[in-house]
């Protein structure tokens, strides 16, 4: 490829030049949600970050197969194969079939990501749709001597694996250190080692979701699904594996081990991880009471929020921070991003109205290169955004008649702004993002024309009612000499 892209590889703990395994084809796997509850904001940050990465890889000309899984089977309460099946627990609580729970929250997940304007993955496989592949992988790991079966449950033998390959390679920790930080087996004495994890779990008679296997009725462990599905769709070795940094120590560490044990090859060339979210400097979590759902963020219904913030404001807020840095949510930070986003989109709209002159008195030719250099440096969106804001100064000067721009430079400037704002950053104007289609816009216009008619007829009650209710829904309405203007 013409561009030199560098990404931070968690495995090597340094930036490396990105060189795909297969010329211009890129295989990317991102751990998707466990769909037994509403998607939380930490998940959204990960998926929005990898949406930006996906978009930029496409811009560079790569053919990307982006796989993002759905966990919809047998995920227990703890990482150590303990507790209740989350899907069964939720199904009993809501008096629904487990797959009704799966469908409900999968639809909700897709709705939220659509609101954030993320592109769909190339393939979105589910754990329940790949039970056979997971069983076959477990059988192979058993045959290769890295697992053992105990009373219907199959465990991965971490200490035996570590004799051949370093188990803690992703987090750069030795097995001895990991063992010191692990509690005793506590009721799980069928395991040979404290770090051993389940590849296949024996089902209790009352378990709602279970499948037949060579070891009896049961369900897959959490970690095996990603190894099985990534292998099926991307091969035994592929380019990029992503997820939140909270997955490094257990889930991704176990993925590497079981994939190596099965396929005898390094599964992933570049491991990428997004950082955590904090709220006013405190890590976001349910237990801390500071975790809020995207819908609470949009409506402002959470007690920590002064008011709601639009999806595009939140997406812009996330893009202003590098994906590997901690992202702190506060009302002050969100309001600053809201103003910044409005300024950027106002400038973008102003750019469309500029008319070319015979000559250019502003320098805009290097903008694309600067933005590309930022993105080529481990997808540094904050720097790319800063370059766009610098260009706004020239746009405003041209708009005010203090500078000029010729047709060639103007067309390039428009193209660069469209490419980076819409195609790569995935941003849309609030009206476009919220309205979504022409029919919606026409409906709002119709209501406001009805309001104008009511005002002309001195029907103040109807006029005020339309304005007040639209304002309550988040519309900003401005009366003008020619009629009205509105935006979300």
Question: What does this protein structure show overall?
Answer:
The protein has 488 residues and is α/β, with parallel strands linked by helices. It folds into 3 domains: 6-274, Rossmann fold (3-Layer(aba) Sandwich); 278-431, Isoleucyl-tRNA Synthetase, Domain 1, CATH 1.10.730.10; 437-487, no CATH class. Helices cover 46% and strands 14% of the residues. It contains 17 helices and 15 strands. The protein has helices at residues 41-59, 86-94, 98-115, 131-143, 158-164, 175-180, 222-234, 248-263, 294-299, 311-319, 331-352, 367-376, 381-399, 407-424, 430-435, 438-456, 460-472; strands at 6-9, 14-17, 25-30, 63-68, 147-150, 153-156, 197-202, 218-220, 238-244, 268-274, 277-279, 282-283, 327-329, 476-480, 483-487. The strands form 5 sheets. It has a 4-stranded parallel β-sheet with strand order 4-3-9-10, sandwiched between helices. A 4-stranded antiparallel β-sheet has the order 5-6-7-8. A hairpin with a 2-residue loop joins strand 11 (277-279) and strand 12 (282-283). Helix 10 (311-319) packs across helix 11 and helix 16 (438-456) runs antiparallel to helix 17. It is globular and about 80 Å long. It starts with 5 loop residues before the first strand and ends with a strand. The mean pLDDT is 92.
């Amino acid at each position: 490829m013409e561009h030199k892209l560098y990404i931070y590889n968690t495995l090597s703990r340094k930036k490396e030049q990105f060189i795909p395994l297969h010329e211009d084809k890129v295989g990317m796997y991102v751990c998707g949600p466990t769909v037994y509850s509403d998607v939380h904001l930490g998940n959204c940050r990960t998926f929005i970050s990898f949406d930006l990465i996906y978009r930029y890889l496409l811009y560079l000309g790569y053919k990307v197969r982006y796989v993002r899984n759905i966990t919809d089977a047998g995920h227990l309460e703890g990482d150590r194969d303990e507790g209740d099946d989350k899907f069964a627990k939720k199904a009993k609580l809501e008096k629904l079939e487990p797959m009704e729970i799966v469908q409900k929250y999968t639809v909700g997940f897709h709705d939220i990501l659509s609101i954030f304007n993320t592109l769909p993955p190339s393939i979105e496989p589910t754990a329940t749709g790949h039970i056979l592949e997971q069983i076959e992988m477990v059988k192979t790991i058993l045959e290769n001597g890295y697992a053992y079966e105990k009373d219907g449950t199959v465990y991965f033998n971490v200490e035996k694996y570590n004799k051949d390959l370093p188990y803690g390679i992703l987090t750069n920790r030795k097995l001895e250190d990991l063992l010191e930080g692990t509690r005793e087996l506590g009721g799980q004495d069928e395991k040979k080692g404290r770090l051993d994890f389940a590849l296949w779990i024996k089902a209790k008679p009352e378990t709602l979701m279970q499948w037949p296997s060579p070891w009896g009725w049961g369900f897959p462990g959490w970690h095996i699904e990603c190894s099985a599905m990534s292998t099926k769709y991307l091969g035994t070795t592929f380019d990029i594996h992503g997820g939140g940094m909270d997955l490094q120590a257990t889930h991704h560490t176990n993925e590497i081990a079981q994939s190596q044990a099965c396929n005898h090859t390094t599964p992933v060339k570049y491991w990428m991880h997004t950082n955590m979210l904090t709220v006013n400097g405190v890590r976001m979590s349910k237990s801390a009471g500071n975790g809020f759902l995207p819908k609470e963020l949009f409506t402002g219904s959470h007690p920590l929020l002064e008011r709601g913030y639009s999806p595009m404001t939140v997406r812009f807020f996330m893009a202003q921070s590098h994906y590997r840095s901690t992202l702190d949510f506060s009302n002050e930070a969100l309001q600053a991003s809201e103003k910044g986003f409005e300024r950027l989109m106002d400038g973008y709209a102003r750019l469309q109205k500029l008319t070319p002159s015979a000559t250019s008195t502003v320098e805009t030719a290097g903008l694309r290169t600067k933005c590309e250099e930022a993105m080529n440096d481990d997808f540094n969106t904050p720097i790319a955004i800063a370059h766009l804001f610098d260009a706004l100064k020239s746009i405003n000067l041209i708009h005010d008649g203090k500078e000029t721009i010729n047709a060639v430079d103007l067309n390039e400037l428009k193209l660069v702004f469209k490419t980076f704002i819409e195609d790569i950053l995935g941003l849309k104007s609030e009206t476009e993002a919220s309205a979504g289609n022409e029919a919606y816009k026409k409906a709002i216009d119709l209501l406001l024309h009805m309001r104008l008619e009511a005002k002309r007829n001195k029907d103040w009650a109807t006029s005020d009612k339309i304005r007040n209710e639209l304002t309550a829904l988040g519309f900003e309405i401005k009366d003008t000499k020619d009629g009205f203007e509105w935006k979300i």
